[in-house]
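Shipment paperwork, digital attachment
Item: protein structure file
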Amino acid sequence: VVYSGKIRERGEEMIGKYSPYVTTSPSGKMRLCCRYEDELTGKIKTATVALGKDTKKARREAEIALQRKIEEKLFMPDQKSISLNDLVKLYAADLEADVNITPSTVKRNTIACKTMANILGGDVLLDKLDRVDILGKLTATGESAGTKNERLKRFKTLMLWAYRHGYIENVMFLERLTRFKDTPHKEKIADKYLETYEYRKICDAMKIYKYKLFFRFLCLSGLRTGEAIALEKEDIDLDRMAIIVNKSYDSNGKTTTHAKTESSIGEVHIQPELLELLHEIDMFYKKQDLRTGVRYCKLLFHGEKGEYFSYYAFKKYLARVSEETIDRKITPHACRHTTASLMFEQGFTIDEVQHRLRHADSEVTREVYTHITKALRQKENEKIDRFRIG
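Attachment content:
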């Protein structure tokens, strides 16, 4: 059986001589699959692509994408002819075929690799990479040390993938790629969360009420931004005082996906302050919908036409307000770490915080815990310094 290499004509029922079929993961994610014969080994392999909806149009588009992917897999250029751009395409196809990786992660990693290829020169052949002044080209971008280090990390991952798949014979040159001197860790971790007085200052400075409500909700609940945007009204179970978390909104792909990890799926307890906030949120959106003519919207947070809440508008507003009030820009994800810092300040253990955030394990949570613990110990020592007996 040999794959024909031709795009399926209307009315045909197979790709090559194999029929495509749909698989569904335990989380409900669908993929279109098709077997093909590897001409180099004679083995039967399987290629897959994501299938958002099982409709005729979606299936037709997925079949075309599937055929192209098979063609790419069958095209095995000579090792020395592979350019950095070629490698990125092969790597992206491999990521997309992994059912355990979400489309948003595939897109993010692919963009990162393409950007690195542009910086180094996409036409550079893999066996010539050791002659490229990689650190010099990164320095020329003028980006921050943190950004350059992230690019190095992604590049090394790409090269190790290429080595494991036989596209490059030697990766010893990676040892010369030392990290750029970055901001001291103490300053860097401080940008990942807010202390109580900083949280209050930002709240007080927020004049756009819908953004203030969303900011407070993120900090009180500990939900990821995508999880909060994807929340529907029926996910708020007031009988059990719980928020059901089982999905996330990808603002890049503009799609709703399953939760980030299996541990992310679960319930978040609604404490009294969060319950009061949910009532405020409900009242605000009832008034907005009445004013804008939206008869019903299933989303907890939404735009004036019933569309998904704008992540990028909120991100921009939060960065501006935080810079004006506490002299540094805060990202939406910092709200999640703020939940951790405020809980640590009030005596919660690291296990209790990780349970609240639905983390199987979190390096950042431990970093915040260590930093907050040291800060509290310093305050305690300052009190002791003022202690007198006689």
